[in-house]
């Protein structure tokens, strides 16, 4: 019984050293990116309709070259603590492979130290919750190396409330489906009448 266990532990340790199970922790990352998110509508947005403008740049107070390994960035929509409460499926974990704070990827982009901006239309599948925006920087091996976010460390400042697509939208969808059935139906009826008229005039 003991031998296999020893081998298993040894094997796991080896595979960890081989970097595959080496997880980057959020607390080990430096916040070298300055991120802002804004909307002319304020801090309450509707999924599937409203837009959020996200800007990011390298914080120049870090020594030049700090960002020399940065290759790409990913913009993420992340749950604020208030919307994580009693929801283990949105839990914050320091090991980024297990972290569930930032489940929605907004976009990925090549890294640039400045002049970055992206206008995002809040996607239709975003649930109702409070969010902030985080930008992760990745190196050439796609390992996370830095981050920035539009909120403070305790994630209470500058949050966005998103309202999910509601019953109002659903009923519009249902109405438009009914309407297309109705149009197809009336088109069919129209052709039927025309053919009948045609036949009647032929008989005359
Ligand atoms: C840039 O980084 C410095 C050092 O970490 C920090 O004190 C400063 O607040 C940052 N600037 C912005 C705009 O976030
Ligand atoms: C950023 O954009 C401004 C205005 O478009 C331009 O003057 C400046 O050179 C750009 N900076 C970089 C680093 O590309």
TrEMBL record:
Annotated protein name in UniProt: High-affinity nitrate transporter
Keywords: Cell membrane, Membrane, Nitrate assimilation, Signal, Transmembrane, Transmembrane helix
Transmembrane region(s): 174-193
Family, similarity comment: Belongs to the NAR2 family.
GO MF annotation: an example: nitrate transmembrane transporter activity
Cited Pfam families: NAR2
Signal peptide start-end: 1-23
Function according to Swiss-Prot or TrEMBL: Involved in nitrate transport.
Domain of life: Eukaryota
Organism: Helianthus annuus
Entry GO CC: plasma membrane
GO biological process: nitrate assimilation; response to nitrate
